[in-house]
Specification:
Largest sheet of chain A: 4 strands, mixed
CATH topology of the largest domain in chain A: Glutathione S-transferase Yfyf (Class Pi), Chain A, domain 2
CATH architecture of the largest domain in chain A: Up-down Bundle
Oligomer: homodimer
Largest interface: A-B, 33 and 33 residues
Chain lengths: 203, 203
């Protein structure tokens, strides 16, 4: 098996961090997103959406989408559970994962692309929409502060895939949008320090 | 148990269709989205994201996000499997579900909101971005045509949650954006006729 990725891309980091938590060794091959390698016919045959990460399976098929790849490895390696054990816990973790994806990660990604025009060779950018997305991203820092005042981790009392998604989104927002946890967001900062000090955060 | 929803909202339809496929009876309560009932403190206590559908559980807790709700019922009622049985099939169904959500449903939803200003009392709209989203939605009709030339259903050779997500998105795009399957998209039309004629499509 091998993962096609780009080391600095947040969705690729999700998979690396997840596999580090699981203790799974993996081979990686870098994809030149800036040069458009992900839009080549060869790559689109692996993933019709033209995105990384993509897992190449030993049978010659491919699996895309970071969370689908993580869930695949969760089921292959059930120790150190990160997706939940009971139907309700599994649903709650998925709910929080989706909250993070739709309200924190996606606005952050759109803000970056529309403000910087990073992919303006292949998409139409609207900087004002990017600024609005940056505002929306910042608002969810506040939602997470409220949540983490009541919960040790994002989805409950233990570390899960939802924390991986949130950490990757927050570090991306800090690096590309200069959005940072404020001094008043004490619970969010406590969570951030705990999660980012895990060895997997360096994967 | 009870589901808070809005009958005409596509994410609410996902849950109704899923429960109809599973043969699960459910009580529903309508939420006045246009009037902002979903942004009231009472509703935000149920779902901090302020969205429908929300499942009220018998223990007094709440579960949000359509796909998390569906997965919860999948695990409670494993007959007529819709999320996959093996680790690989489950990952493939999740991959296609995410393709549909991110590339078809989300652009369609943003197009509707930004073009019509439907929620302009509570969000800033950029009509040009809405038009771009409409273009992106239409492009994925073409991606689905390619996929369905090679596959009977979206995620493989049987009906799954991915087909529910796709049907809800396509019907929404037709109704609100006047985006329709073209005469040349024969495989997509074949799939659409098969899926929309299931009794659950009327739920």
């Amino acid at each position: 098996m091998k993962v096609y990725e780009l080391k600095r891309a947040p969705n690729a980091r999700r998979v690396r961090m997840f596999l580090a938590e699981k203790g799974v060794d993996m081979a990686y091959e870098q994809v030149d997103l800036s040069g458009g390698e992900n839009l080549s016919p060869d790559f689109l045959a692996k993933n019709p959406a033209g995105r990384i990460p993509v897992l190449a399976l030993d049978d010659g098929s491919y699996l895309s989408e970071s969370v689908a790849i993580c869930r695949y490895f969760e089921e292959l390696y059930p120790d150190n559970n990160l997706f939940g054990t009971t139907p309700l816990e599994r649903a709650q973790i998925e709910m929080w994962s989706r909250f993070i994806e739709f309200n924190l990660w996606q606005p952050a990604g759109m803000a970056f692309r529309h403000i910087t025009g990073f992919y303006q060779d292949r998409e139409t950018c609207f900087p004002e929409w990017g600024q609005e997305c940056k505002l929306l991203t910042g608002q969810w820092f506040g939602k997470l502060e409220e949540r983490l005042q009541a919960s040790v981790y994002i989805a409950g009392d233990r570390f899960t895939i939802a924390d991986i998604l949130a950490l990757c989104a927050i570090d991306f927002a800090a690096r590309t949008l200069a959005l940072h946890i404020s001094d008043e967001q004490i619970a969010l900062k406590r969570w951030y320090d705990a999660v980012s000090s895990r060895p997997s955060a360096q994967a």
